[in-house]
Amino acid sequence: MPAGSKGLFRPTVCGYANGMISFPKKLLEGYRAFRTQRLPTEQSRYRELSERGQSPEVMVIGCCDSRVSPEVIFDAGPGELFVVRNVANLVPVFEPDGGAHGVSAALEYAVNVLRIKHIVVLGHAQCGGIRAFVDKIEPLSVGDFIGRWMAMFIKPGEVVEQRGHETMQDFTVRIEKAAVFRSLENLMTFPFVRTQVESGHLQLHGAYFGVAEGSLFVLDKAAKEFKSVRDYAA
Ligand SMILES: [Zn+2]
């Protein structure tokens, strides 16, 4: 056990074993594994990041889905990814209306302070947010927060419907990928993003993660389609 961690998990200290707290045991065990296995190999990196601050070059906008963790998929270490996750990996349009906008705030910081060089919008298969959208589910609460959040995916007057020949599965996948396209489109409505992109200091990317196979597809903007990373030379 590394120096400094002595007694951290003694039941009388952490308390979960004697019922003092209800913090999930799984998380405490995970933290113990992190502290004993991973932290020793990355301690100097953490100290450096603490002293120097973060300077990630990549921002990932992904879904809340527990199966689609950007740090896991891209095998990223501390300080490497600036991550924003929300339902269905959506980016709203630039809307300086005086309201509180979480994704916009993160974007503002990433682009204007961190000077991020790449923004990756990461979509995925079996997205619950997209499924709620295509199934036109009833509001889950009086706030209809998911319904209102997903509504920004479509433009005023736009109709998104299943095509005649399309299975529900194909329709859902098409919309999961369309959410990435729409988010990339919306990113360019932010003046500070557009300026950086047009000056060549910032690049926007789309990607799509296949949960079952752990497969990754990257958007080929010229072809307007997602291509398996296996098609790219290593
Ligand atoms: Zn999702």
Structure description:
Strands 2-1-3-4-5-6 form a six-stranded mixed beta sheet, covered by helices on one side. The chain is an alpha/beta fold and 234 residues long. Helix 5 crosses helix 6 (145-151). The protein is globular and about 55 Å long. Helix content is 38%, strand content 16%. Residues 1-6 have low confidence and may be disordered. The structure holds zinc ion (ZN).
SSE blueprint and pairings:
Blueprint: H1 11-14, H2 25-52, E1 58-63, H3 70-73, E2 81-86, H4 102-112, E3 118-124, H5 128-134, H6 145-151, H7 168-187, H8 191-198, E4 203-210, E5 215-220, E6 225-228
Helix pairs in contact: 5-6
Bound molecules: zinc ion.
Please supply descriptive tags for the structure shown above:
alpha/beta, 8 helices, 234 residues, disordered N terminus
Question: What would you say about this model in short?
Answer:
The protein has 234 residues and is an alpha/beta fold. The chain has eight helices and six strands. The chain is 38% helix and 16% strand.
Query: What level of helicity do the residues show?
Result: 25-40%
Output the structural class: alpha/beta
Compute the gyration radius: what is it? 21 Å
Q: Tally the helices: what do you get?
A: 8
Strand order of the biggest β-sheet: 2-1-3-4-5-6
Q: Give the number of DSSP strands.
A: 6
User: Separation of termini?
Assistant: 38 Å
**Most strands sheet:** 6 strands, mixed
Strand content: 15-25%
Molecules bound to protein: zinc ion
Shape: globular
Low-confidence stretches: 1-6
Average pLDDT, rounded to a whole number, is 91
* H/E element order: HHEHEHEHHHHEEE
